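Render this sequence as a predicted structure.
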Amino acid sequence: MAPQTAETFAERIKLLIQRVGSATEIARMCGFSEGVVRSWRDGNTDPSRARCVTLAKTLGISLVWLVAGEGTLQVDPTPTGMDEQYSSEEAAPHRHHAHPAPVHHHLAAAATVDAQRLDTAVRMLQSELSLADSRLSLSDNTDLLSQLYEMLGPGGSHVDPLAMVTFNQRLAERIRQQRNTA
């Protein structure tokens, strides 16, 4: 599937509303209020990380696309692809029944996504992959993106050097594995 372009989070929510049918339906499926989905659609607020994960899992979309607007909208439907994509975040379970249970309070209270911090993490991972001349894609390595995001301070201005060494070792191992299977 070709990448879906939507520059802002609000534009991506509007696209999802078109696909699902209504803000009301997204809210019902995810256990959110209609007002919060409309607020995201209108660009008035941004969701927490946990709510982004819940949205992505419930709607079967890429977390990287939802948060950063990169890659394709749809995730790889294989169970391992889903597990890897969401392994570093906690989210409410995928819901198929008519009346979803309310989202847990600790999920609703989670911090919102720091856009500058996320942008820094995306740029760092893209740079690392480019420097390694790797064919790994950002959308296939959301766990690494999440790890980088967590390592960065507010606004993406600080990084723990020891954590970065560990991250680079993990990335190098992944690149070696990718090259050995190519």
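Summary. Confidence is low (pLDDT under 50) at residues 76-111. The two ends are 22 Å apart (CA to CA).
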